[in-house]
Amino acid sequence: MKPIDTLKNNEARKREVLSAAAASGISVAFGSPIGGVLFSLEQLSYYFPDKTMWQSFVCAMVAAVTLQAIDPFRTGKIVLYQVEYSSGWHGFEMIPFALLGIIGGVYGGLFIKLNMLVAKFRKSNANPLRDFPVLEVLFVSVLTSFINYPNTMMRGQNSELVHSLFSECDKLGTDDIFGLCKVTTAGTISMVSLLLTASGLGFLLTTITFGLQIPAGVILPSLAIGALYGRALGVVVNLSQKHHPTSFIFSACEPDIPCITPGTYAIVGAASALAGVTRMTVSIVVIMFELTGALTYVLPIMIAVMLSKWVGDAFSKRGIYESWIQFNEYPYIDNKDDTPAPDVTVSNIMTLIEEMVCIDAKHDHTVESLRTLLDNTTFRGFPVITSTSPSSNPATSTPFFPPDTSERTSSPITASPSTTTTPPNTLLGYISRTELTFALNLATTITSPATDPNSIPTTPSISRNLPSSTLCLFTHSPQASPLTTLDLRPWMDQTPITLNSESSLQLAANLFQRLGLRYLLFVQRGALKGLLTKKDLWWVLSAKENREGRRGEEGFVAGVGVLREEGGGDGGGDGEEERGLLAAERGAANDGGRIRSNTINTLDSR
């Protein structure tokens, strides 16, 4: 997307393209265009409007049609393991199908926990290959080869293995390269032991390989593992039916007609394993339905997926993707998460105004001074306030750093009887770094010259080639000339979402979850009191889980209100969006910061 400016510079369009790309990927990987759209909706997108769904649908459809026309496998099928079933299922099979769902949930819960342990070890200093990723990949590859080769089921590619496990024996014929259709009892038992052993080895190896610095996913390995133990259970049920055909359990089976299809158990097992790992539901059912084309097996797949998710949620509410997001400390707040926030007010958590960098509308700002502000900070935006202090000299204009409370009370400002007293630090709005940078660049360059050189620009879309000493305004000024000043109000959010500074943290967390906010301003009678970012809230909600080991042996407590390190990089890097909009050094926290730190320590010890 880098060569295309409309995508590179537009985050909304970029997210839409990524959603459509994910849908097309699932479409060609599983031959499931509708499943790809549902995968993008269920797993990837925080906000999924109708426009994005339509674009994802078109992209998935075009990808599937293109692959069908190319026919890479020369079989007329989109994927190698696409199968069709000619027989249905019986009511007594609902019990083994439900058992597969439970096994899938246990597999998913254990897989996530073990994979997170491996990831922590890989990131720790105890890992001798931590700084040698190529050697680590080579070591895991050699280890995988030695472990897999003795087992016949592990020698082939996953796509070939899954196709054989899904297929019926009468359709495999001479393509039974894994020996799945043995007719003798002894051969069947040995084959079941190979299936279960391969499933266990695949489980252990996948927990190690997922997270390596290679393009290796978890969807197809999980399908293969689930198909292995699902096929094993199907073979056991089929063998039991053949040895006890007159049992009341198998009374629904017709004589001299195959009653059990082990391949269907592989399908249900694969769906349960994938649901246990990813915690997806609807998209998995649709993918499996489109993969097999058997509408009659939708109900068993739905039951297995539902039970797998329930059992997996008993281990952890997070799927594998959410667990990795948490492990990498990305500020992701799930809008479906109903975990209660600490029972405190936001004033104990938020970044106080004394620790923030704000833009004071009463000060005289120029294009040069605002660019200096952008160059000297890496914050993603600035609250715009009007203070009760006198206006500063334009030549020495600087960003407003709110004074301490003691200074404000010791230097009161008396208002004339004819004017209305306004509260200190009245909030006027919020301007983001992107909008401010764009407005300044647009005002100081010529990209769309006006036809009349004497015309006054009335819209922010016209460039004006203003000098760097031009006065910038954040409030209405009747005396200001539009030819010699720059009005930044069109670029400022004059109605940002705010809450009272004494509101509960749970209310603030609900706003972040439901509205997808990146920041939230807190006021009291119109005066700005503080700010809370998504990163800060994430620190608070993750305090108990990440208490140990994040900052060395001394540990850390999330959300204490201290500043995140600004770090390297350019002024507008993506890293700062994750760090928040705080403004004080960690060691320079004031008494209010220490009080908030004690509050979180108390919460963390409960």
CATH topology of the largest domain: Clc chloride channel
Going by helix content, strand content and strand pairing, the class is alpha/beta
The total tally of domains equals 4
The strand count comes to 10
Largest sheet: 4 strands, mixed
Number of helices: 21
Report, as a whole number of angstroms, the end-to-end distance.
47 Å
Mean pLDDT: 79
Give the topology, please.
Elements: H1 5-8, H2 11-30, H3 33-44, H4 50-70, H5 94-123, H6 133-148, H7 158-166, H8 169-172, H9 185-209, H10 219-243, H11 262-278, H12 282-292, H13 298-315, H14 320-327, E1 351-352, E2 359-360, E3 365-366, H15 367-376, E4 381-386, H16 405-410, E5 426-432, H17 433-443, E6 471-473, E7 485-487, E8 498-500, H18 505-515, E9 519-524, E10 527-533, H19 534-541, H20 574-579, H21 591-604
Parallel strand pairs: 2-4, 6-7, 8-9
Antiparallel strand pairs: 1-10, 3-6, 4-5, 9-10
Describe it.
With 606 residues, the protein is of the alpha/beta class. It folds into 4 domains: 5-70, no CATH class; 94-327, Clc chloride channel (Orthogonal Bundle), CATH 1.10.3080; 357-407 and 421-491, CBS-domain; 496-604, no CATH class. Helix content is 47%, strand content 7%. It is built from 21 helices and 10 strands. The protein has helices at residues 5-8, 11-30, 33-44, 50-70, 94-123, 133-148, 158-166, 169-172, 185-209, 219-243, 262-278, 282-292, 298-315, 320-327, 367-376, 405-410, 433-443, 505-515, 534-541, 574-579, 591-604, and strands spanning 351-352, 359-360, 365-366, 381-386, 426-432, 471-473, 485-487, 498-500, 519-524, 527-533. Strands 1-10-9-8 form a 4-stranded mixed beta sheet. A 3-stranded mixed beta sheet has the order 2-4-5. The chain has a 3-stranded mixed beta sheet with strand order 3-6-7. A hairpin with a 2-residue loop joins β9 (519-524) and β10. α5 (94-123) packs parallel to α14. The two termini are 47 Å apart.
